[in-house]
Write a structure and sequence with these properties.
Chain lengths: ~450, ~450
């Protein structure tokens, strides 16, 4: 292999610095999840092909990473192609028994159905695992990336919506991003809107068009609706909804009049009011009702969420309630609600705003310089005793030049360097250098634990 | 999808209970790694095909999970097969651009070469990620499993061997398994043995045969050597080596006489003595020199390790020193040493010996029973304040029958259940039930934080 080794496009290596930052996000998120009673699960990277195909639309099917068949199945595939005498893509793809996880939602639905008799419902789970999509890689879009999902399944209570709003609120407060906006809408409100204009059968077109309002002007979106067969009269009914303004209460109050004839619409408004007022009672004041929030996914049936930050162009968390996610795997009537945190986007945002805490960059707290075999042996003993009390420390393994060892300490962002040369070996002391201040102090070797613990 | 959903053979779902146990192992291991100055890295699940093929022998190549080509590459593959008019497995396999990680060692070598200019050497890294092998699944052998690897690369110092011995020693002490044996040998000793019997060119045959001593009798192993062309005279020289007994010092002393004419053999003995005596000085007394320890992997060149436990049939940790792991990717002269912890085996051993700490099974500490909307709202407020001080708690989302809610609390292994009904709502109290003792106590709502913190 003469060329410099590399990795598949759209994938990334995570070195110590990136790992520290990513683990900071994961640990913060996990800490909040666990305080809310969510338990972790993990599913295999590979799912059976039939578990995944047909779940993400035609585009999703094309973006699945399929596993190549092995052994006799390869021969069988080749034989089929030779017999068919044509380069049939479907044929090749259908020979795959497995495919890589595309998101965490479908595997979660499969998990719930498969293990329904072992689980206690409502089931509160979180899952932090990578997913794979054969997307065209571009800035901020990878072929392997982590998702952090949290769901409550098996309960229709709106307290679950509140639970997730609190969870998001606490996660962003803990990450130093309290200035997020938690956007809330309800699919039933959108259904109500479609109903009052007599276009219930075009709910999907309406949702897809509204979902574009954050990228296109209102004019363009209305044009799209016209093309989809919405009349001018329809658009006149839709416009005031798009142009709602004021406080959450004011928006909902106006909407109540507009949707008064739709039972489902009024139900959506009522649900939203309950969620908003409960959140407010708990001191969560950054929830904003946004009737134009639509979200693309087809399986949402109630509340929908999105979290945005003024300094980031796209949403950093999103989710909603689904009434029949597990139905595709044969288990009906399992309503649930969940949100997903975009780890890569949060990473980029924290990086831009310089919000990663400084201390997470420190792996080794204390490095012992190596001045030779006898000295190093003493250092290993001291390091051993420091580790008993939890200090992260290491002895440089070779008696290299001091400059090289100090460079290593600097590169590794070490807090203290300990120097124990032949003099110190004789008089039982050790010199400790604070790498931040540059201060040096000579202490008794027996006092090193006390020194590092102070 | 009418059938019960399932997952690919050889893969596993991890539910909350298994996750808690596995995370206990990972967190313990990580804690020790980090105290020794090892930093985490992660590499992509997919590597380029050419990074992996040819690195694990023919068998390994067959066990790789390859990614099926997509789009035009599928058509190209089909076209090739039609032109060749034969079911050629190699042709199909070579159409894969990517394959799934088979172990953590080759990706680590690739990582070090690719990022050599960003890294500070010696580089101490740990990596805990799943790997995939298309092996025939059987008890304890999976197609997806985690490896926990720790390596120091870029230093020839024997202090690194000592560092790893200490690391293993501390990991097993922390897991409640202090009665492990850390077996140590050195490939140079085995080379020396091959040299003194004049069979340096059959070092591989000798290693492979010795590696079987834990499964086969000595007779069978000697028979195998005879078949490989070792003479009776050779075997007479090998036998005393196989039958070494006594303390580490006694074994090494006998071996010194047997291998006195071999420079490399004497070097191996010297290295072993240094490592053993240093470990002993640090109070690590469970290291045992085992000249028959061979380990299959061909890239080891110095120390080799294995950790065993009296209650487990196979080794639970293994590793060794390699002088040229990165050479395959074009970077010469990077000596390193590493060990790998078998997470699944450690899991099974801790399970068998009932050594998982009880508290890891507790996710939610306190469950608030839901007696209705008004009561639940009060509970949510209390839960919210408890989370501020770190208590893991949740409110049951539906006003279900008490029996159902208590079953949920039991299934989830909750420590306390809080009951706040209409009476408590009026008089500002709450009843807390200790689920272990069954004791109930009625306290002021304002005292709940103090109660849970006591």
């Amino acid at each position: 292999m003469a060329n410099k080794p590399s990795i598949p496009k759209g994938t990334r290596d995570f070195g110590p610095v990136q790992m520290a930052k990513r683990n900071y996000i994961f640990n913060t998120v996990k800490g909040v999840f666990e305080k809310h009673g969510f338990s972790p699960i993990e599913t295999p990277a590979m799912e059976l092909r039939e578990t995944l195909t047909g779940k993400y639309g035609d585009e999703g099917d094309q973006l699945l990473f399929r596993i190549m068949p092995r052994g006799q199945k390869v021969s069988a595939l080749a034989q089929k192609i030779i017999e068919a005498q044509s380069a049939n893509q479907k044929l090749v793809e259908s020979s795959a028994d497995e495919a890589l996880r595309y998101d965490l939602t479908v595997p979660f639905a499969r998990f719930v159905v498969q293990h329904q008799n072992e689980l206690s419902f409502p089931f509160k789970r979180y899952q932090i695992q990578p997913v794979w999509r054969a997307d065209r890689p571009q800035k901020g879009r990878y072929r392997e990336f982590y998702q952090c999902d949290v769901d409550i399944i098996g309960s229709e209570s709106l307290l679950n919506e509140v639970d997730l709003i609190l969870t998001a609120h606490e996660v962003y407060a803990a990450l130093g991003l309290p200035d997020v906006t938690i956007k809330l809408n309800n699919r039933k409100v959108l259904m109500g809107l479609a109903e009052v204009i007599g276009k219930s059968d075009q709910m999907v077109d309406l949702t897809i068009a509204l979902d574009k309002l954050d990228k296109l002007t209102q004019e363009k979106v209305l044009e799209e609706l016209t093309q989809k067969g919405f009349s001018d009269a329809d658009l006149e009914l839709i416009k005031p909804v798009l142009n709602l303004s004021g406080s959450n209460e004011e928006k909902l109050s106006t909407l109540k009049e507009l949707l008064s004839t739709s039972e489902v619409g009024m139900k959506g408004i009522e649900e939203t009011e309950t969620v908003l007022s409960t959140a407010k009672k708990l001191g969560v004041n950054n929830v904003s009702f946004e009737v134009t929030l639509a979200r693309g996914l087809s399986y949402y049936t109630g509340a929908i969420f999105e979290v945005t930050h003024p300094d980031f162009p796209s949403s950093i968390t999103g989710g909603g309630r689904y009434d029949d996610l597990t139905g595709i795997f044969g288990l009906k009537g399992m309503s649930g609600v969940g949100i997903s945190f975009g780890a890569d986007r949060i990473y980029d945002l924290l990086e831009t705003k310089d919000l990663f805490p400084e201390e997470i960059g420190v792996s080794t707290e204390l490095l012992f310089v190596n001045f030779g075999d006898q000295e190093a042996l003493k250092c290993i003993e001291l390091a051993h005793s420091l580790r008993q009390v939890g200090v992260r420390c290491e002895v440089y393994p070779d008696p290299a030049k001091l400059k090289k060892q100090m460079k290593y300490a600097n590169d590794k962002n070490v807090l203290f360097v300990a120097m124990l040369g032949s003099d110190e070996l004789q008089n039982g002391t050790i010199t400790l250098k604070n790498m931040t201040t540059g201060d040096q102090e000579n202490v008794e070797q027996s006092a090193i634990v006390a020194f590092m613990n102070r």
